[in-house]
Design goal:
10-stranded mixed beta sheet; single chain; binds 1,4-dihydronicotinamide adenine dinucleotide; 11 helices; two-stranded antiparallel ribbon; about 350 residues; binds magnesium ion; Isopropylmalate Dehydrogenase
């Protein structure tokens, strides 16, 4: 029996509602397989916790998480707590403490998913974004001088270390090689004359180790345009923290919307747990009403299965999501359906059972 210890940080708003459905699907697989088991430990951290205790997570939170096999996270953020606090004191703290320097976001237009582009072949939208997740524009380096005065100055510095840049680019090359796909680097060397010139240089250096991988390199503004006008150019993509954040939201819109988009924060060396989450936020506008689409959380559960070595089940969950979309009957309101969050989770679990 393989037992996996999962830390669950359901968080705020719709976080707990959607995670529950992800867990439902994981448990369905575990029950039917019989040889694997998930053990969940729930941590009550988030904005509600902050309003009661003055902290987003306990002082020893990182220490308590470090021995889990994976972290499953819903969403954090709620009106009343400034977003930079909820983000920095929980999500970014975990990503940084556990050196989750790879953020993987699949942008794949599965069958049945809505796409705003006309005349596009479904197969042409199949990208794997690998976003730098530990430094860059989100390093938190900067200063705020002469606050409130006429000569006020704010600095936000991008931090691109050789180690940090090389490792994400090398990981992306390895991923592309394994998948037999091309690798595209997205940067902005014309305007960001230090950081992105360096990024481009490292990309060219590492490329020499992977002569079998076909490469392309675009400026971020051109890439944004091409993702719409010619999405099939992009297969595996590597980019910086900020550019990846923005472009993967654009990608989410191409591949079925925010209700479907998942992301994994990976520590490839497995020295620390990796974290799996839907990329949407806590959606306070629809929280507590059973309206939230759980498919993004379920897709992240599929990424979790991939990561712990059960790729067969990871694929099966994706097939089940595809099956649900093709049926088109049990969908939440964001996908023009009338089903509740739990009904979608139930249906996906049913389809999973039928595929096993
Ligand atoms: P959001 O993703 O929470 O919501 C944007 C829009 O999409 C809303 O209209 C919402 O109802 C809808 N939406 C989001 N997820 C949905 C789902 N699963 N099903 C159906 N509709 C869905 O982004 P917003 O409004 O900018 O942020 C709300 C809060 O979430 C903020 O406090 C923000 O800081 C936080 N946030 C947290 C993230 C995280 O924990 N990873 C990521 C993004 C935002
Ligand atoms: Mg984002």
């Amino acid at each position: 029996m393989s037992i996996y210890n999962i830390a669950v940080i359901a968080g705020d708003g719709i976080g707990p509602e959607v995670l529950q459905e992800g867990i439902k699907v994981l448990n369905t697989i575990a029950e039917l397989d019989g040889s694997l088991h998930f053990e969940y430990t729930y941590f009550p951290w988030g904005c509600e916790y902050y309003s009661q205790h003055g902290v987003m997570m306990d002082e020893d939170g990182v220490e308590r998480l470090k021995d889990f096999d994976a972290i499953f996270l819903g969403a954090v953020g709620f009106p009343g707590v400034p977003d930079h606090i909820s983000l920095w004191d929980l999500l970014l703290k975990i990503r940084k403490s556990f050196d989750q320097y790879i953020n993987i976001r699949p942008i794949k237009l599965i069958k049945g998913a809505p796409c705003p582009l006309k005349d596009v072949n479904r197969e042409d939208i199949d990208m794997l974004f690998i976003r730098e997740n530990s430094e860059g524009e989100y390093a938190g380096a900067g200063d705020w001088l002469f606050k409130g005065q006429a000569n006020e100055v704010v600095l936000q510095t991008g931090v691109f270390s050789r180690k940090g840049t090389e490792r994400v680019i090398r990981y992306a090359f390895e991923t592309a090689r394994k998948a037999g796909k091309s690798l595209t680097s997205i940067s902005k060397g014309n305007a960001l004359n230090y950081s992105m010139v360096f990024w481009d240089q490292v990309f060219e250096e590492v490329a020499k180790e992977f002569p079998d991988v076909q490469t392309a390199s675009y400026l971020v503004d051109a890439a944004a345009m091409l993702m719409i006008s010619d999405p099939k150019r992009f297969e595996v993509v590597v980019t910086s923290n900020l550019f990846g954040d923005i472009l993967t939201d654009l990608g989410a819109a191409l591949a079925g919307g925010i209700g479907l988009a998942a992301g994994a924060n990976i520590n490839p060396e497995r020295n620390f747990p990796s974290m799996f989450e839907p990329i949407h936020g806590s959606a306070p506008d629809i929280a507590g009403k059973g309206l939230a689409n759980p498919l993004a959380a379920i897709w992240s559960a599929s990424q979790l299965l991939d990561f712990i070595g059960h790729e067969k089940y990871g694929q099966l969950v994706l097939d089940a999501i595809e099956g649900l979309l093709l049926e088109g009957e049990v969908l939440t309101p964001d996908m023009k359906g009338a089903a509740s969050t739990a009904e979608v989770g139930d249906r996906v679990s049913k389809i999973v059972s039928s595929l096993m």
